[in-house]
């Protein structure tokens, strides 16, 4: 198939997925990037009819493939949608051209995943803005905690000097409110506790969260589970991850409160999948666990969505805006990532956790 092994080595080191198809559109070669893209083994892809590798592919593109084999022209489809058999929707640029190899006409398909590039760019912007937010919060916390300490200390001294015990009620209020504000500032900063890392099954964590949700809502909420049992144990702090996922689940439960009150269906779904060769930030991980928490609530306001992980941002009048900020901090400490997509009737929190943490 190749004029030399040199050309093959070049193809195998490309990050772009490359397929060679014969005149029947059957795969005669694919590089490792193509295997990773489709998340199917090389043996299952080789000799397969190319359109059958997808649950959905543009029929116009398939017709174009046959035309290219006859005419020899090149065709590119920008940001086409390709649905994999695992229901993952990929947004890709697809370029098709023909070539003669060993006297045979073949179709060369190059596929570049656009949503991955857009996601990495979005992640970098998110991480930068979150780091800026953390710096501002730390500075603000320092400026608040110092005078709070002085106020509380002055109240204690004043209480010792007051002649009437009845007046101690006022100094007690000053001290209690100072302590409450200090606790609030500490929660804004997040936990400074070191991770207690140990092997843990991600489904054990989710089952604990489901139990706590059942205890709070009972039969009023429908909890669905779609687990991938092949996901190996992750190295994580179990208690902190339980807290992080519980924060998301409780947010979903609160979003569903009006539907529950009206007697309408209220549903939270937990879905897990494994992903290979997945990039988080600037680090490419060999294997990542993807967890989705999905609810059928009213959705998050579009203008609020970009800032939901910032401290003190809440869509509820009685919310503190700290739950998701703490959640994001916990996943970040696990070298993971949390994202949110929302529309009326469906909100999806997607969490990516590497199965092996860097030392």
Task: Describe the protein's architecture and organization.
It is a single chain. This protein has 359 residues and is α+β, with helices and mostly antiparallel strands. Helix content is 42%, strand content 26%. The protein has ten helices and twelve strands. The protein has helices at residues 5-12, 32-38, 42-45, 59-71, 114-161, 168-189, 202-217, 238-255, 257-261, 323-333, and strands at residues 17-21, 27-30, 75-83, 89-101, 104-113, 198-200, 222-226, 234-236, 267-280, 283-295, 337-343, 346-354. A hairpin with a 5-residue loop joins strand 1 and strand 2. It is elongated.
Give descriptors for this structure.
42% helix, five-stranded antiparallel β-sheet, five-stranded mixed β-sheet, single chain, 359 residues, 10 helices, alpha+beta
In terms of topology, how is this protein built?
Blueprint: H1 5-12, E1 17-21, E2 27-30, H2 32-38, H3 42-45, H4 59-71, E3 75-83, E4 89-101, E5 104-113, H5 114-161, H6 168-189, E6 198-200, H7 202-217, E7 222-226, E8 234-236, H8 238-255, H9 257-261, E9 267-280, E10 283-295, H10 323-333, E11 337-343, E12 346-354
Parallel strand pairs: 7-9
Antiparallel strand pairs: 1-2, 1-5, 3-4, 4-5, 6-8, 9-10, 10-12, 11-12
């Amino acid at each position: 198939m190749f004029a030399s092994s040199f050309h093959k080595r070049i193809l195998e080191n490309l990050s772009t997925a490359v397929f060679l198809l014969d005149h029947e559109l059957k795969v005669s070669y694919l590089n490792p990037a193509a295997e990773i893209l489709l998340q199917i083994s090389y043996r299952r892809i080789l000799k397969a009819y190319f359109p059958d590798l997808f649950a959905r592919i543009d029929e116009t593109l398939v017709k174009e493939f046959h035309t290219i084999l006859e005419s020899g022209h090149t065709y590119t489809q920008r940001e086409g949608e390709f649905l994999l058999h695992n229901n993952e929707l990929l947004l890709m640029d697809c370029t098709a051209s023909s070539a003669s190899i060993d006297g045979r006409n073949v179709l060369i398909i190059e596929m570049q995943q656009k949503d991955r590039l857009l996601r990495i760019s979005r992640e970098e912007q998110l991480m930068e803005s979150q780091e800026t937010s953390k710096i501002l919060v730390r500075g603000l916390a320092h400026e608040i905690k110092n005078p709070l300490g002085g106020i509380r200390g002055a109240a204690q001294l004043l209480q010792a000097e007051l002649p009437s015990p009845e007046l101690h009620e006022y100094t007690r209020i000053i001290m209690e409110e100072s302590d409450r504000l200090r606790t609030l500032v500490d929660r804004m900063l997040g936990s400074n506790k070191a991770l207690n890392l140990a092997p843990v099954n991600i489904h054990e964590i989710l089952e604990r969260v489901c139990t706590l949700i059942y205890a709070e809502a009972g039969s009023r909420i429908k909890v669905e589970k779609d687990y991938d049992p092949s996901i190996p144990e992750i190295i994580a702090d179990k208690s902190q991850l339980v807290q992080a996922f519980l924060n998301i689940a409780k947010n979903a439960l609160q979003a569903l409160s009006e539907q529950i009150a009206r007697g309408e269906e209220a549903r939270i779904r937990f879905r897990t999948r494994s992903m290979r060769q997945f990039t988080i930030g600037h680090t490419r991980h060999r294997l990542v666990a993807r967890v989705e928490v999905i609810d059928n609530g009213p959705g998050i306001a579009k203008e609020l969505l970009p800032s939901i992980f910032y401290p003190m941002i809440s869509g509820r009048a009685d919310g503190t805006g700290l739950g998701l900020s703490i959640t994001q901090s916990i996943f970040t400490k696990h070298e993971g990532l949390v994202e949110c997509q929302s529309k009326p009737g469906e909100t999806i929190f997607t969490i990516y956790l590497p199965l092996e943490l860097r030392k």
